[in-house]
Amino acid sequence: MRGQERERGARDERRGLERLIGHSRAITRVIEQVRHVASTRATVLIEGEAGTGKGLVARAIHESGPRRGAAFERIRLEALPPSDVESELFGNEREAPGEDARGGRFEASDGGTLYLDEIGEAPAAVQVKLLRAIQDHTFERVGGTRTLKSDVRLIAGTRRDLAAEVESGRFREELHYRLGGVKVRVPPLRERREDIPLLVESFLRELNRRHGRRVTRITRGALDRLAAHVWPGNVRELENVVEGMVILARGRRALDLSDLPEWLRGTGSQTPRLDVTVGMTVEEAERQLIAATLRDTGHDKPRAAAMLGIGLRTLYRKIKQHGIR
């Protein structure tokens, strides 16, 4: 029986690590770090640019560890209004007679893993409760007085420099210490270009299944063009581009250069240059950069945000702030 359990555990670990695709030195280091930390109870901070696959690393840690059979909960703090973050994490006691109390993600992931995506977006009040939940495994629901316990392994992800956020006063120093005891840095795609063929091959298999297509492969010319691109949106942007190519492909055939988006085929206009001059304010330079990026992406805001290295909510805020149309 123990031998069967060990075999099953090894199989689950392989399945978790298979999410991390590539043979480059950069991604191999990440895989080794996941192996080392997965079997522990340590809180892990995953750092990396938007679109690099921090969520995949978090799930690989969960699936490679002893909690693999329990819940894995993921919450994107950036996608929530700040006023909703606390109740989403810790739950809410009934606000009126007849209403049911609602548990939060800490209760839902009891015995398992909770992944907090973009932890740098956590409001100050939530940071205080998070610190206590990490230290004592206790919390109260919003509007409640009963202390609850939850055995949760916490993993956090961020594209921000949290040390700089601490210096600016936007992030609690004690929470940073608690989260950052074990750090895993996920490299941007430009640091692991040799992994692009394997990533594209994996995407083709999954996208064929998802969309009922019959793409057989991708030609060397098209693959070389993909590998030469900088990919500011990282693996997520690459997958989105390949998905668009697969969806538009008809019949059983290979993808070639003609299937690439125009901006990747090199037939479109050159990348626009900004006229930034000495004496120009930072605000004006930022406005020009955001406006030019929006024009270059055809006002595709998710892609523009990925290219700029900021969150979509931040981009919308800056568009309004600078009066960009």
Automatic annotation (TrEMBL):
It comes from the Bacteria. One of its GO terms (molecular function) is sequence-specific DNA binding. Residues 20-247 form the Sigma-54 factor interaction domain. The keyword Transit peptide does not apply. Coiled coil: none annotated. It holds the Pfam family HTH_8. Keywords: ATP-binding, DNA-binding, Nucleotide-binding, Transcription, Transcription regulation. Residues 87-106 are annotated as: Disordered. Residues 91-106 have a biased composition (Basic and acidic residues). PROSITE patterns: SIGMA54_INTERACT_2, SIGMA54_INTERACT_3, SIGMA54_INTERACT_4. InterPro entries: AAA+_ATPase, AAA_lid_NorR, Homeodomain-like_sf, HTH_Fis, P-loop_NTPase, Sigma_54_int, Sigma_54_int_dom_ATP-bd_2, Sigma_54_int_dom_CS. GO terms for biological process: regulation of DNA-templated transcription. PANTHER family: TRANSCRIPTIONAL REGULATORY PROTEIN. This is Sigma-54-dependent Fis family transcriptional regulator.
